[in-house]
Specification:
The protein is an alpha/beta fold. It has 16 helices and nine strands.
Length: about 475
């Protein structure tokens, strides 16, 4: 509309000047805006690295303090901060020239409108008009020209926002491309469907490190039926934990058939790592995990919990983990795991806490809490990856005895000889793709007696030396 009105008032020269001015400003801003996309992308990446570094430093603050590694950690964080500030400095400098171009374009547009109107007047095209008609023509033409220029400058004013958006879009597109790449990879659950097996079995299974062609162990074959627990031993780096990843369908085997109960059902099979995973929330939430637990007992929270189902309740049982009967089960599991003192620390097992469980509990207490989780769910099979490494032999024996009393079949990874008494099969990995499987049901008692005697003799010798 404004282009047509300006053409009627002063001819084609006016719109042509406006469009030429807009194209010139567009080209200048394009040149100034292009480097900003990459700078914004890198700035976002460096900000993510900087925040991750702070989170990691906070998570491992105590370990770093024991090593007296404060200076090294600060140097690492300072280097990340310096890289971020350098990128921010580049962004500010580039945006300065872009903003200068945008503001100059806006300012010169008002001057250009009068220059466009002045060209036909100076050329004498309106000499036949009276002073009043000429003033009216100048006023009308200036108004229309100003509005037309303002429409174009509004587009150019978005250059800064467009450059920022382009940088964010580049970062998001990179993430989406990576996710698409992951989606195209064969899913382990598709190649090994999560069927309801009542046993754990490997049939000529070969496996290695993920994304590597190196084979850790070849043609492993064993079967764990209910009541026939398996102990896995071997030197560090031989592939013990990797075998558990293959067993629970986290990794894809290179060859062979893996049969295992559905690991998504904690009442069928449950995994206990050496360092148990703790979530944010109450003590009860730690025990019932991986089932969901409402965040508090307040009526407003329960209402939102039931409305949005934000805590992943997939079954009716998941959403009823805060009932009095369930709370009694949780307390019993904690007491069986030897965590009565932890129960005394909290006012209520259902109240959310404002601390990190990894910080307030020792490694031994964390492993006991993992066993409390096991006693609560009472699965058919339990996979333990050095789950008692931070506990004394007496505590280890108590926990394993409770597992056997609950008829939980164990698949354990460990180094202690004291574990033999709780298992009927022994799988030993040697680290050179070799392995052996033997029946130890008749040797368990004698091995345990020798181990306990050796431990007692060592303790007595140490006490005598101290004395």
């Amino acid at each position: 509309y404004y282009t047509y009105s300006l053409t009627v008032l002063i001819g084609f020269l006016g719109p042509c000047c406006v469009f030429a001015y807009f194209l010139m400003g567009l080209l200048i801003n394009k040149v100034l805006m292009s480097p900003l996309v990459g700078i914004v992308f890198n700035k976002e990446k460096l900000e993510g690295n900087f925040r991750y570094g702070h989170m990691r430093c906070r998570s491992y603050a105590e370990s770093s303090a024991f090593y007296r590694g404060e200076r090294t950690e600060r140097q690492l964080m300072d280097s990340r901060l310096a890289a971020l500030l350098d990128m921010q400095y580049q962004l500010v400098n580039r945006q300065f020239f872009l903003n200068l171009s945008i503001n100059a374009f806006d300012y010169l547009a008002s001057c250009l409108s009068y220059f466009i109107v002045a060209i036909p007047i100076m050329a004498g095209h309106y000499n036949d008009l009276s002073s009043s008609d000429l003033s009216s023509l100048i006023s009308k033409s200036s108004f229309v020209c100003m509005y037309l220029l303002n429409s174009f400058t509004t587009l150019l004013d978005q250059s800064t926002n467009m450059s920022d958006t382009a940088g964010y879009t580049h970062r998001i597109c990179e993430l989406m491309e990576m996710l698409e790449t992951i989606d195209k990879e064969p899913d382990v659950s598709d190649m090994h469907p999560l069927t309801s097996h009542d046993h754990i079995a490997f049939t000529r299974v070969s496996y290695g490190v993920r994304d590597s062609e190196a084979v850790l162990t070849r043609d492993v074959t064993f079967r764990v039926n209910r009541g026939q627990s398996l102990l896995i031993t071997g030197p560090s780096g031989c592939g013990k934990t990797s075998l558990l990843r293959v067993m629970l369908h986290l990794w894809q085997p290179l060859a062979g058939i893996v049969e295992c109960p559905n690991p998504q059902q904690p009442n069928r099979v449950l995994f206990l790592p050496q360092k148990p995973y703790m979530i944010e929330g109450s003590l009860m939430a730690q025990v019932v995990f991986p089932q969901a637990c409402p965040p508090s007992n307040r009526a407003s929270h329960r209402r939102w919990f039931s409305l949005f189902n934000t805590y992943g309740c997939s079954t009716k049982e998941d959403c009823q983990t805060n009932t009095p009967a369930q709370q009694i089960r949780v307390r019993e599991a904690l007491q069986l795991a030897g965590l009565s003192d932890v129960l005394a620390r909290v006012e209520s097992i259902t109240d959310d806490v404002d601390w990190d469980w990894h910080s307030v509990l020792s490694q031994g207490e964390l492993q006991r809490l993992g066993f409390a989780r096991l006693f609560y769910h009472r699965p058919t099979f339990a996979v333990l990856d050095e789950a008692t490494s931070a506990l004394q032999l007496g505590a280890e024996k108590e926990l394993y005895t409770v597992c056997l009393d609950m008829n939980i079949t164990l698949v354990s990874v460990g180094h202690r000889d004291s574990l033999f008494q709780f298992h009927q099969q022994h799988l030993e990995l040697f680290g050179n793709q070799q392995w052996t499987l033997r029946d130890i049901s008749n040797q368990a008692s004698s091995s345990t007696t020798a181990a306990v005697a050796a431990a007692s003799s060592t303790a007595t010798t140490a006490s005598s030396s101290s004395a």
